[in-house]
Amino acid sequence: MTSEERKKGKIDPEQKLLIENAQRRIKQKKGLTTHFVVFIAFSIIFIILNLALDFGKDITLFGWPWFVWAILLWFLFIIIHTINVFIVNKLMGKEWEEKQFDRLIAKQQKKIIELQKRVDKEYPLPTEETTTPRLNHPDSENNTL
């Protein structure tokens, strides 16, 4: 991109695509960071509720207090979210979506062409010879001789 294009505010389509992809990735990472901060805050609240305020102190599952299970379950969701942001979206990001989109369109176009060939073969369009009566033909009704 030239400095003149930048001054006019014109962005070529490739640059625009790169910017949109970067913005989408930043939004995903920001969402993960927010999720992690909320997880830490609520984990601390769960621990304080149980240990300092005796909230649900009698509730246990397999010998572990409820807050441990809540924190572990939430941590599992954090791990899934992290995998989604850093692995799955990297492997199946915008480029992968575009390749899949192009592949499916090509597949559909191929099927349409095959169907059109079949229709043309089984139901050919009438030609001019078969639709217009011939003059001066013995079988023609329009003979004006």
What's the tally of helices? Answer: 5
Counted beta strands: 2
Number of domains: 2
Poorly predicted ranges (pLDDT <50, ≥5 residues)?
none
Largest β-sheet summary: 2 strands, antiparallel
Main structural class: mainly alpha
Helix content: over 70%
Beta-strand share of residues: under 5%
Strand order of the largest sheet: 1-2
Order of helices and strands: HHEEHHH
How far apart are the first and last residues' alpha carbons, in Å?
A: 77 Å
Report Rg.
Answer: 34 Å
What does the average pLDDT come to?
82
Shape: elongated
Note the topology.
Layout (H helix, E strand, L loop, with lengths): L2 H6 L4 H40 L7 E2 L2 E2 H26 L2 H29 L5 H4 L14
Antiparallel strand pairs: 1-2
Helix pairs in contact: 2-3
Folded structure, characterized:
It is a single chain. The protein starts with a helix and ends in a 14-residue tail after the last helix. The chain is an all-alpha fold and 145 residues long. It has two domains: 9-91; 93-123. The chain has a two-stranded antiparallel sheet with strand order 1-2. The radius of gyration is 34 Å and the shape is elongated. Helix 2 (13-52) runs antiparallel to helix 3. Helix content is 72%, strand content 3%.
